[in-house]
Amino acid sequence: MEPARDTPAVILLSGGLDSATVLAVAGDMGFRRHAISFDYGQRHVLELEAARRVAAAAGVMEHRIVRIDLSAAGGFGHSALTDSVPVPKDRPASAGVPATYVPARNTIFLSIALGYAETIGAGDIFIGVNAVDYSGYPDCRPEFIRAFQVLANVATAAAVQRGQRFTIHAPLLTLTKAQIIRLGLDMGVDYSLTHSCYDPSGDGAACGHCDACRLRLAGFAQVGVKDPARYRG
Questions:
Q1: Number of domains in the chain
Q2: Domain CATH number, residue 17
Q3: Does residue 219 belong to any structural domain of this protein?
Q4: Which has more pLDDT, 44 or 39?
Q5: What pTM was computed for the model?
């Protein structure tokens, strides 16, 4: 961990297990945390309620929810998370980029987070991407994070004119789901506040079979701790 410092940072907060852990990491590093979440037309919009719970429990300086429409109705689409496409269940781990991939989602999210960071004078942006248990998403890989950091430092007035240095922190990048959970538990993260499932039932119960559920369940099993999420059946 870097030395504690009382400076602002922007944290992308989906409401899931990974982003809740990253929010705790940023706090442990001493940053004044400004959380940002996105209502992008996702079918599992329950995650936004989880994001509100996590942000409130963490005592962040500010929590913004930005509305953008990445669904077919908004002119984008082609994802099981935003359209009427079945969410893959019990998918083999090596099956490639899944139907739940949302085109350019993390690029869009980080771009908005970068604008927010520049506005509040923050040079640090945190994102919970993970290259080990990342379900095949290309925008969760180390090369993507490195490339976006380069972009951030040539695409903003703060960097070009004022010498601001932007750093994209991805502290979970090389961790397994079990290691992420252990890290979060050590920092006191309450995972009962989080939501991970891509295809929850109407009452919010997780399906237990989508990629997000399977990775989460396997992680808790490896740690030897019961997952506090509520599952169907």
A1: 1
A2: 3.40.50.620
A3: no
A4: 39
A5: 0.93
